[in-house]
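Let's practice the habit of predicting before peeking. Look at the sequence and jot down your guess about where helices and strands might fall. Then scroll down.
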Amino acid sequence: MKYYPINLDVQNKNCLVVGGGRVGTRKVLTLLQCSAIVTIVSPEISEKLKDLVLSGSVNLIKRGYLSGDLQDMFLVISASDNNKINQMVYKDAKACNILCNIADIPDSCNFIVPSVIRRGDLTITVSTSGKSPALSRKLRIELEKIFGKEYSECLKLMGAVRAKLLKEKHAPDNHKYLFRNVLDQGLIEMIKNSDIKAVNDLLCKIFGKDFTYESLIKKPNQS
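Done guessing? Here is the structure:
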């Protein structure tokens, strides 16, 4: 199976998770990180999910899965320990043309979930096309060591620079060389070393004197 890689927008979309155990909890948390509207259907749920239900972060249908639960859903993830329920979810989702993932059963999915590394708005994914979750996990752990928080800070800075350039009506096509140049000259390493003077010197050299780290990136304690 060759999967088409894609980043899916689930913000404010109705998503159903069947099963409230360890795997179901993990799926719910990931969907919430992406601002989905999450409903859980399960007779029993974990303590973490109980807290989310009490806080109003998720909706709970406290019973077993029924076919009608898919109504108005954008996608469904089934993490039940009952294979009959998982297969029922898959068949119902297929009939309704709803995106469906059955945890750890790639043959019963029309999308699979990769291992994910997040550094702010930077998202790096690893997929073995469902053949080896263990290898995906190993690669994810290795990549987490390579891509530190400096990448998140760099992306935040580059986003702010881009927004300022667009506001000043610079042509987007002209930005490509500038951004490649600033990265090639060691911006990420400067950020990693907290060398703000070097960052500012580089920004000034590439983009102009009005571009400084302090003016582009406001910290939480700044007004």
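How did you do? The first helix runs from residue 22 to 33.
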